[in-house]
């Protein structure tokens, strides 16, 4: 008697919106119920991190810190790890990466228009920026009144990594977690790699090329959609917190492949912050990267 032919593995796709961006979890499996369960685990982790680290709602630690009126706030171990990481990147970047710089959004609106703020509007915000002004003694953070932190420069990539690890803890399946173009895979699909599109700078194209990924992560930083244009000059949304003004001459896009999404995102962000020195930096770091000017 012949046995039944095994059902070929398919890719279960689950899409949702979180952290203000379209998200997708893909699971290669023959079991559609398992695929749906694993995808829901990934979505749940994204929503947990969004609720915990949003600055807009009193659901978590960032809102508590920003509204503490200068009083110290004791944070949990997960948050302490993120703050330690932010402090480390701030030091390595010589202040170019600063989680207190989010207040600059009060002056800068990168909507594709020509509305560049007047220098006094930017200057007025500079006293509210500077990680060195923050009191951070694990596990207590003291933020001077008027200042705020924003973990948006880390959280999406962190959520990708956490979602991938949560899924992997539940089942050893090939999974791709993609949150707004920042992604991580648990391992290659059966007999093939994951095909990942790099966003094109040309509006007429949907992608600028394809990457084949087994196990690892990819993150992209760029200004294709967020910029200002005045008198023929393009102002990138990549702001230097030391000046309050856009970085001069950055690439249009930097994509980095690394072991984790946080690593890839950090390298791509720092490359953008270094402007014309982006490629020199990435080569020195021996990063697998694609830079578009």
UniProtKB/TrEMBL annotation:
Mg(2+) binds at residues 153, 269. The keyword Repressor does not apply. Its cofactor is Mg(2+); Mn(2+). It catalyses: L-threonyl-[protein] + FAD = FMN-L-threonyl-[protein] + AMP + H(+). It is an enzyme of class 2 (transferase). One of its GO terms (molecular function) is transferase activity. Keywords: FAD, Flavoprotein, Magnesium, Metal-binding, Transferase. Its EC number is 2.7.1.180. Magnesium. Can also use manganese. It comes from the Bacteria. Belongs to the ApbE family. PANTHER family: FAD:PROTEIN FMN TRANSFERASE, THIAMINE BIOSYNTHESIS LIPOPROTEIN APBE. This is FAD:protein FMN transferase. It comes from Novosphingobium fuchskuhlense. The lineage of its organism: Bacteria, Pseudomonadati, Pseudomonadota, Alphaproteobacteria, Sphingomonadales.
């Amino acid at each position: 008697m012949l046995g039944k032919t095994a059902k070929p593995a398919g890719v279960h796709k689950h899409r949702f919106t979180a952290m203000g961006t379209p998200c997708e979890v893909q699971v290669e499996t023959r079991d559609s119920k398992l695929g749906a369960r694993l995808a829901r685990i990934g979505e749940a982790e994204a929503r947990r991190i969004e609720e915990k680290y949003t600055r807009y709602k009193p659901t978590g630690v960032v809102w508590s810190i920003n509204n503490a009126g200068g009083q110290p706030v004791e944070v949990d171990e997960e948050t302490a790890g993120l703050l330690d990481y932010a402090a480390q990147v701030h030091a390595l970047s010589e202040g170019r990466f600063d989680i207190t710089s989010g207040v600059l959004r009060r002056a800068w609106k990168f909507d594709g228009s020509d509305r560049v703020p007047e220098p006094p509007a930017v200057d007025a915000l500079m006293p509210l920026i500077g990680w060195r002004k923050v009191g951070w003694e694990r596990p207590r953070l003291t933020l001077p009144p008027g200042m705020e932190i924003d973990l948006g420069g880390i959280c999406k990539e962190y959520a990708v990594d956490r979602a991938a690890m949560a899924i992997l803890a539940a089942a050893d399946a090939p999974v791709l977690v993609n949150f707004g173009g920042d992604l991580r895979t648990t391992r290659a699909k059966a007999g093939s790699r994951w095909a990942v599109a790099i966003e094109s700078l040309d509006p007429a194209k949907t992608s600028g090329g394809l990457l084949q990924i087994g196990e690892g992560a990819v993150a992209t930083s760029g200004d294709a959609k967020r910029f200002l244009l005045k008198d023929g000059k393009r102002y990138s949304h990549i702001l230097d917190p030391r000046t309050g003004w856009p970085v001069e001459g950055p690439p249009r896009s930097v994509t980095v492949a690394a072991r984790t999404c946080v690593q890839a995102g950090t390298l791509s962000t720092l490359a953008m912050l270094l402007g014309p020195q982006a490629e020199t930096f990435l080569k020195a770091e021996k990063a697998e990267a694609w830079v578009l000017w």
